[in-house]
Design a protein that fits this description.
Blueprint (H helix, E strand, L loop, with lengths): L5 E4 L1 H16 L13 H4 E5 L5 E5 L1 E4 L29
């Protein structure tokens, strides 16, 4: 199956898409013996968090008016790196 990029254009589309992504997230299975009802690689991009755990980010483009962008964080807790978690560069 191919990847799908979702376009969210405007306030109502972003509201509906938030519910879509929440529903997609509810289909994630975490048990080894349990099969997922959906293929997550279609709508999500796999990746690794700073601590090495596997993550999935939605493949989406979000567009809204300038005044509506204050509600979303630019960095979330999943990819936020604390200074204590990052080792100092060696050999410099």
């Amino acid at each position: 199956m191919r990847e799908i990029i979702t376009l969210q254009l405007g306030q109502q589309a972003n509201y509906l898409a938030t519910h879509f992504w929440n529903t997609q997230e509810s289909y994630f299975t975490y048990a080894e013996d349990e099969e997922s009802p959906v293929d997550h690689d279609v709508h999500f991009r796999p990746g690794l968090a700073p601590d090495g755990t596997e993550t999935f980010m939605p493949r989406t483009v979000i567009y809204d008016l300038k005044g509506a962008f204050g509600t979303m964080r630019k960095i979330n807790a999943l990819y936020e790196v604390n200074a204590e978690d990052v080792a100092a560069p060696q050999g410099l």
